[in-house]
Structure formats: C-alpha cells, structure tokens
Amino acid sequence: MPDAADTRLQRLRARIAELPKSPGVYLLKDRDGVVLYVGKARELRSRVASYFQDSADLLNTRGPRIAHMTTLVEEIDFLECDSEVDALLKENRLIKDIQPHYNEQLKDDKTFPYIEITTGDDFPGVYVTRKPRPRGSKLYGPFLNAAGIREAVNALQKVFKYRTCTLEIRADDEQRRFFRPCLLHAIHQCSAPCADRISPAAYAADIQRLRKLLGSKRSALLRQLRQEMEQAAAAKRYEDAAVLRDRLQAIESLSLSGDPDEHVQPEAFFIDPTAGLEKLQSVLDLPERPRIIEGLDIATLHGEASVGSLVCFIDGKPFKSGYRRFRIKTVAGVDDYAMIREVIARRYKYAAVAEELYPDVILIDGGLGQLHAALNAFEHLRQAIETEGQHAVKPAMVVSLAKREELVYVQARSAPLKLARNNEALRLLQHVRDEAHRFGQHYHHVVRRKQAFDEDVAAGRRPPPRKRPGKTRDTNIVVEHDDSALPPPDDARQA
Length: 495
What we know:
Distance between the termini: 96 Å
Oligomer: single chain
Structural class: alpha+beta
Number of helices: 16
C-alpha cells in the first residue's frame, strides 16, 4: 500500500501532466496554499517535472534549500505567458509581491523609479521619484536603474539648468529678485528662477527641450537648437549663440560613453532602445527582434583577484535583477580564455538543459579569440549534457566586440562586421559591453581589497585605516585638503 509521500508524488505528477508546454510562471504551494517558490520556464511542463523526477538530484544541483522545499509542495499553480521574456518579467513582479520563502533573489520591495516633471507650477521642477503624484506631472519611465537615472538627471541639469528643489516659486512674486540663489546656480547648474534670474518663457522653453529629449525626439531638438544658434549669430547675439552651441555639444555627447561628471549619463539615454534592437536584428540576420541581451566580461590583474561579470538587458534597457558576478575558481594565472569558459559553464548550465532561458544574444567583451573561447565552452557544455543522455540546447547567437577598432565578431562568420560609429546596433552593443566592464571592474576592486585585508590579518599586520579626506568647516564651507599642494617638510628641503 503506497504511503502518504508516494500518494503526494503521484498526485503532483498527475497535475504536472496537465501543465501546458508553453512559457510561463509556476507557483509551488504548501498544504495551506502558501506560495513557497515562484519560478519561470521556457516550457512549463518539463521545467516543473524536473523537481519531482526520481532521477532528479536536487541536493547536488539546486542545493539543500530547494531539495527540502520540494518535500513541502502540495499544490502547483501556473500562469501562461506569451513569451519567455514576459515570463521573466512576470516572475520578477510576483516574487516582489508575494515574497516566497524559498526564493532568494528579486525579493526587494522597491518600486521602479520615474522621472517626473511637474506641470502645474509656473517653473516646473524635475525629480526622480518612486511615488509619482496622482496629477499635475508628466512621467517618463519606469526605469530599472535608480542610480543611473539620478546621475542622468544631474547631468542633464547641466544642459537645461532646471530646478530640482521643492520651493514654491510663483511668477507673479516680485520679491523673488531679492532672493539669494543656492549653490546650484553658482556652479551653473540651475537658472535660478527662485531669484528671478530667468523669465518664465525662457524657463518653459528649456523644459520643453528637455521633454523633447526624454520623449526620444533628440534629432528634432538638435535641429531646433541649431536653427536658434544660427539665428542668434546672424543677429549678432553672440553670447546667446555660445550658450546654444554649448547645449548642442552637451546633447550630442549623449551618445558617448564617459564619466557622468563630464558627459551626460549614457545609461538611460544612450540610444533609442527600439531603434537599436531593430538594427541589431538586421545586422545579425536574426529571425525576430532580440529582447534579451547578456554581456560577459573578465576582470583580472596579472592573474590575481580574477572575476567574471554578466549583465542583462531586456528590451534594450538594463535589468539589474539579472546581473551576475563570478569569482574565478579553476583558473590560475593570466588566461582570459579559460576564465570565459569557466563563467559560461557556470552561468548557462541550466539554460543548456532548458531549465532556464537563454538570452537572444550573448555578447563577449573581446575579439576573435574571446569569441572562439566562448563557442568552445558552449560546445563542451553540449557534449557533457548529451553524454548524460539529455537533450542540450544551444544559444541562439554569440558575438564579441573588440574595443580598439570596435569590430563585431559573429559566430559562423569568417569576417568581422565593421559598423559605422553612429550605427544604432553598434551603440547598443557598446552600451552592453561597457556596462559589463563597469560591473566587473567594481567587483574586481572589491575582491582585491578583501585579499589585501586577509593578507594583512594572516601576517599579523594591522590593516591600514580607510583614508578619508580632511575637512575644515567654516561658515558651512567644506574645504578638501590636498597634501600634494603643500610645501615639502623641513627635512626634505634640507636634503
């Protein structure tokens, strides 16, 4: 007579047989109907069945946490989705809403940020907010990267000089001319409507230009500014023409990758994502427009503190929940190719057996050698899976992008692609590559600092304290001390 555990398994397997062979999200529940785990699947039936097969070695493949969770499952529910990407996004939303106990990622309860421009004020303000006001504002977003959006708003403020304060400013207030503007006006980052330094019409024109830019009308805005500059120059209003020229140059720098302190932040406004994806489909001869792109990079210093980074873009925008970082475990010394093979084997082992989603495009930071290393890793992964008697899934498209000449190497193509610098597909790939490089370098520096700390502790040395710049406070002014500008000490002068 079967025991209760066997009865439960038979009932769950009967339920699994009813699941569709389509993308979707599955919910594993306990006897009380509480959701234990939320997951996504390319094919719901086979993915959920992998948890309850007799041959499933969940303890070694998924860890003791998931293995224990399967013993508590009494009910299986699912939601069908139109595509794999829709399943990924729905999973993200459900995990945030439900907070299942056995999900470890995506459980932060943050809402997505928006750029908000007030419309009911005489001098509209520009803000980054997670709680948009119910009326009286124009919203842009939502965005996935809050830090990047704040940097972008800061950088764009240097161009359009809008206010970000919460002061109530009325155009009919004649007392404004006696008001002392804040520091942002002194550093030329705000036109100071609070102090009557700009007319309502001129300020409204700047806000309208900003809205054009945020609304993906960059080319129209550039034409307008160029015409206004030429008109100002023809009328011998050279100061106005110089201001318009500077704004033209700043807006054109939106397509450049650089320091947000010097250039406008490229992450949120790098290109029009739709145009970039459509161009990428054409360039790579893909059957449909790609939606998921993952970028991979290796960061190392003479073979020390080697790490791998992986970033995920959905519909041309960063999807931070899909970012991954890897501490290199099996490679000693300087061998980028071997490191790439290790990261690929670790990242895509579940995708290769259809338990996770493969991205539409996988981008490797490097040239032809890095691409061959990646393709070799995928081939080894396929052979290992098929040796175990399973069906292996191959990635749709793997490419690499070399930094020096910006050549795009594509799998199964003998010659690289040389795209124009303003090509939307190239600029999108550059954006993914640069983000992977930034993410990897940050983790590399973290690992190096930890290694140095551990070495000091092992040698019995006291780790040096974190250096903080000295500060002198006087009338709310902070002065950063620069020791390099000081004269040498007396003993040095004597020497």
